[in-house]
Specification:
Two copies of one chain form a homodimer.
Chain A: H1 3-22, H2 26-42, H3 44-60, H4 65-71, H5 75-90, E1 102-103, E2 109-116, E3 119-124, H6 129-140, E4 144-148, H7 154-169, E5 178-180, H8 186-192, E6 201-205, H9 208-217, E7 230-234, H10 240-252, E8 261-267, H11 271-284, E9 288-291, H12 293-298, E10 303-304, H13 307-310, E11 318-324, H14 327-337, E12 342-346, H15 350-359, E13 364-369, E14 386-388, E15 396-398, E16 404-415
Parallel strand pairs in A: 3-4, 3-6, 4-5, 7-8, 7-12, 8-11, 9-10, 9-11, 12-13
Antiparallel strand pairs in A: 1-2, 2-16, 14-15
Helix pairs in contact in A: 1-8, 2-5, 2-7, 3-7, 5-6, 6-7, 10-11
Chain lengths: 418, 418
């Protein structure tokens, strides 16, 4: 197979499909999603068989357990995929909605209409459910999608894509509205990243290696989620019990997620009271605690944290603690070491809270809440295609609206410019 | 001078300034803008002297008259710059505004806050007034700006920058919030385009050569305005007098602007009546008319248009005419040859209008109005930093809001995720 021609062909088919999908009605898109969910439901056995095949290869290739866990599909996860699609059917369609109209002194009336972005390329690893999730979100928002899954989920992804095509074939939406790149060749990704004439946006989902490579190579704008080095800052005016609960939840509810706390910052006034209690809790969870010199004075058994600790997304049961003397110092630490993902302050002081919410330049900034809430479902987006740590177009959890853009609509009645 | 170190130094100073500017109050920013406008007003003589120096070089270098025209400053244009800044003072500050709040089933309350993008690099040609305009828009929206003007306006730009620094030095906003790259070395642009750790967005303003080069080289997201191949489609149900006025205005009000009509599309039903009238009008304006075979049958004196004509932004007194048999064919022509800038339909039929407004994938789509209205001032943005033909982040005229982004704000009261 000539990879370059193959990718070119996919992109050209995507372009044709995009013109039709962009103007499909909400009913047509919901019909398509329903057909897809039915097809996935009735093909559960085939998808699980394909997944077995991937799992067999994975154990031959000695993939690490975390990756195998992400790769594994069960009857339950397939039910989850089906329910997820049904949820997307229920979401409001942003496409075609028109914002407030404003009549200008010239007499023209101006408004903005939500429109799909066009063609989106999604490059992802391991989790085969992304194939269905991403396709559904793109479809509902009127975007054609080109999917490129990881080689480890090659058969699972193809089985799911087959269901999507089968579902679409029963509707007026072209089945090329969702295309899976059916080769494990790495060159295919490189080729896709050059097709800026057709593809409007690339969304990589996976480990840092993948995201760094895609960002570096892409000639197409990339909406990416890089690191999640999230902080909780316990202020001197924090409610101690809220602070302890939030710190425990933010660190231990799940270790491997991007919105998990990696560094706890605490004011020196309350550190002597709170830190010993937290150490006990974290030790109970088998979380390794590290800290700066001031933290180590209060809880001497911990390991001294290095600069590298502040910059690390552990994605595991490790936590670093910094003791500061003011909210300004906390903000400075976050600005220096954070990844602009999610940061939370615990305080009862309104003024301090406002300062933190305004000044911390992260995609989500929270008051008296666990960083674990940074999530499209929790925010009411219905679903998310990812969490953006970029600053343009969309920050934080990206749902249907983040997959659209706004064009200007002008109504005149023979108006000319003078 | 080591260019690489020089640009690095500028970017680092910009980063320090960005943290302060991002949280400056509206009053502080307006105060800064007022001081800058006063400084420009009182230094008019010095700016004009510097401009004389640029014009002297330009005539030595035999720059073309259009470029010299764009380069030339007068007492009047300086008054215009001053008034422009005063207008920006009056505009609402988008930064820090919080959208609708939504309380979620978990109990957290979620909203979005407008925040500056951060550091913006603007690379522009000839017009020295961009130095003041762009700096003012960025300041008001809380963004630090790095300016790189054309070598032909080297002295003018520096004179204006001096006024900006003088103005800022009287306020609490660091004078490094606006920095002009003070070298004509082309390497400097290349260096700036690699500083993705500091610079969040690049906006090129100028000819196609500049924009293509910047897009190609930049490692930083680019918000660009490429071509303006704008269409007016006269439908079979158009009001003839509106159609003729709009076509005349869209083509002849100004030739060199991006929102000028380059191709007229007309329905075959009304072409025989309207085209002869339009030919007379355009001939009166000394506009050269070209057309497809069907147009030539109706107005045989015109030149036959080639494929190249449909793809060309003339930026001058030339117009191509295509005759079609349906609104669908008009939309297809625009989709094939347009540049996603601005396209207008003239029709009295609501259904046809809606179809066109919905289906044409351009940054501005108009009904019964001249394409010349596609402009930040006309849309009520107060001012514009440019017109984006990109599809992400901002489409069409970009004002203060387009220079901001949204971060999520979450309010809890000790909420944790379960």
């Amino acid at each position: 197979m000539n990879i370059s021609n193959y990718i070119k062909g996919i992109c050209e088919k995507a372009q044709q499909a995009a013109e039709i999908l962009a103007i499909a009605t909400t009913e047509e898109k919901n019909e398509a999603l329903t057909r897809i969910s039915e097809s996935i439901q009735s093909s559960a056995r085939k998808i699980l068989d394909a997944n077995e095949k991937d799992l067999g290869e994975a154990s031959k290739d000695k993939l690490d357990p975390a990756m195998i866990d992400r790769l594994t599909l069960t009857q339950n996860t397939i039910e989850g995929i089906v329910e997820g699609i049904q949820e997307i059917v229920k979401l409001d369609d942003p496409v075609g909605t028109i914002g407030p109209m404003q009549t200008r002194p010239s007499g023209i009336t101006v408004a903005q209409m939500r429109v799909p972005i066009g063609i989106i390329g999604i490059i992802y690893e391991s989790r085969p459910n992304v194939t269905a999730d991403a396709a559904s979100l793109c479809l509902k928002s009127g975007n054609v999608v080109i999917l490129r899954g990881g080689s480890e989920s090659f058969y699972s992804n193809q089985a799911i894509e087959k269901c999507i095509i089968e579902g679409l074939s029963k509707t007026g939406i072209p089945s090329t509205a969702v295309q899976l790149i059916a080769t494990t060749s790495r060159t295919a990704v490189g080729e896709l990243l050059t097709r800026k004439e057709e593809v409007d946006l690339i969304i990589p989902r996976g480990g840092k290696g993948l995201i760094t490579r895609v960002s570096k190579e892409s000639k197409i704008p990339v909406l990416k989620h890089l690191d999640g080095i999230c902080h909780v800052y316990i202020d001197k005016e924090a409610d101690h019990s809220k602070a302890i609960n939030i710190a425990e939840n933010a660190k231990t509810q799940r270790y491997g997620t991007c919105n998990t706390m990696e560094t706890l910052i605490i004011h020196s006034d309350c550190a002597p009271v709170i830190l010993p209690k937290l150490l006990k809790i974290f030790t109970g969870h088998k979380v390794e605690v590290r800290g700066d010199k001031k933290a180590k004075v209060i809880i001497p058994t911990i390991k001294l944290a290095s600069k590298k600790d502040w910059e690390t997304e552990y994605l595991g049961p490790v936590l670093s603690i910094a003791v500061v003397d003011s909210v300004e110092d906390a903000i400075m630490h976050i600005s220096k070491y954070g990844s602009k993902h999610t940061d939370s302050i615990v305080t009862e002081n309104d003024k301090t809270a406002k300062k933190f919410l305004r000044q911390v330049d992260s995609s989500s900034v929270m008051l008296n809440a666990s960083t674990r809430f940074a999530d499209g479902y929790e925010y009411g987006l219905g679903a998310e295609i990812g969490i953006s740590t970029d600053k343009l177009h969309a920050r934080g959890p990206v749902g249907l609206q983040g997959l659209t853009s706004l064009k200007w609509i002008v109504y005149g009645d023979g108006h000319i410019r003078t």
